[in-house]
Sequence to fold (627 residues):
Amino acid sequence: MHELLQIIVFAGVVGIIPLFIPRKGSAAAGVIALAASIWIFFKAIRLFFGTGEVAYRIALFDLGGQIPIDFALKLTPFNSFIIIFVSLFGVLITLYSLGYLRGSDRGSIYYSFILWTIGAAFGAVLADNLLVMLIFWEMLTAILFYLVNMGGKGHEKAAAKTFTLLGFTDASMLLGIILIWVRFGTVSISRLSVMPIETTAPVTVIAFICLFAGAIAKAGGMPFHSWIPEMAKPTPASTIAFLPASLDKLLGIYLLGILTFRIFDISAGSPLSIMMMIVGAGTLLFAVLMALIQHDLKKLLSFHAVSQVGYMVLGVGSGIPIAIVGGLFHMVNHAIYKSGLFLGAGAVEKQAGSTDLGELGGLARVMPVTFVTMLITALSISGVPPFNGFVSKWLVYQGMIDGNGGYYMIFLVVAIFGSALTLASFIKVLHSIFLGRRPAKLDKVKEAGFAMQLPMIFLSILCVVFGVFARYPLEKIIGILSRSNVGIDGYSVVIAKNGGFWNPTLATGLMILGILLGLLIYAFSGIKKKLRFDENPWVGGNIMDDEEIAIPGTHFYKTVTDDLNPLLSGGLRDGDRGDYDIFNIFGRLGDQVVQFLRMMHDGILSTYLSWAVIGLGVLAFILMFKW
Fold:
């Protein structure tokens, strides 16, 4: 069996085994899934460091004898880079689930879905045929539907919304593929990538928009984003960390990359490029504003998962080489730190029994590993140097500076402002969960198990490594783009063309030096002697206990919805209710159509006869006009 097909088949076949293991033996199923995912990870590493491109193709049928349909897989530098992280997250999430799902009644089938997800993701990424890619894409939608249905209270609505939105955009992808098929006579990605395609032709533009909708819906971009916040509350944190946070971002932005610099010829400043940049900027700004007002940790993180997609779409869609590098690097960085954040949220939920920020506090002392890992990943997503999120955002900023047009400065301001709001949001998160006073009901909380700690530690280390030593992954991404005719010849060219390029290793050394100097000043300045402590705090003339003087981290952020500009505050409250949700908007329109049809079908014979006569009259008029 061919090595590309072997991985997909292996994941599918081994995924059947947990189905035959009783629920009480879910740990055994987890161990099997972990062993299988590790094997897949090492296979992906071997493919990544292999020599050249590898292809597998088998003819299926010819449509009308003219358009051949092949089951085609192809390993390229771009998708070999993606499958490394797909398989890595498969290993980490499976290991984490062994601790997170211990004692759960979800059964062994969860691990089957994990392996099937890995296999379907490999199929979608390796596919060299748009129809084959869509088949695996649909498999992932179906698997996600079942995984969401395995959640807690409210899972039915979340699963239905997820399947509806993703199903609708998958259908739009099918339409786009058909339009490409009709116009160019092939759906082979390799053949399309060497064909000159006019992006100004109406049919081609429609095809691109249809495929673009599928890409951003999978990644979680607006306006098809609302399935992610909806599924956040009832769905296990391990599932969210695996699909919306990591794999779906990788797949969605991978497809966007294929569309923008392999299949279609979209240049910087073109109408399609500006459209994508507007979508990216709108996504990162409005989603982070929605995150600010959330009090549930998983829902807050889900809005940040949406917001960060904006940076990726803004960078990749700009058509500017340095911004494309930043967008793709941010795709990888986001998968790393956002998975770490959701895993941390899962640890807090499992140990403290809640994700409501108003009910938590003071957990840093009893959950130090979770605190440190979430601190690192929170700083990463906020774009604080020297972590990985800053490097990729900095590249996107530079791309906007390099843009030829005043409107690029608007996108730059939006991107920087979005990072500032992200940091403000995570100050609330860290304070509410780990700092301040610990409620009495959380006195018995302890750190999560080692199986849950290890993936969080590993991901936080990656945040540091990919920030301090960003050159290596950037060289890989730039090498991929240079072989894709994007216009970047090497890492040195990036530095030469962008004089303000961030030097993370040097900057980190200077930051450490500054911290050491600060500690020396603190140690020898005698500041400690000037501090005064009082064990009996007095407020308003009364002695208060620990619970009464606790200051929840969520109170300050009520200003966003209560005291700011009425238009902005009201818009955020309306958005939180789902008033601007495209799913709800079309749901209301559909309900109105149904009510109208019900009104027309009243069961009275004379009404039906009237409609029949009107219909015959219309047909007679059309026939008379035709002749």
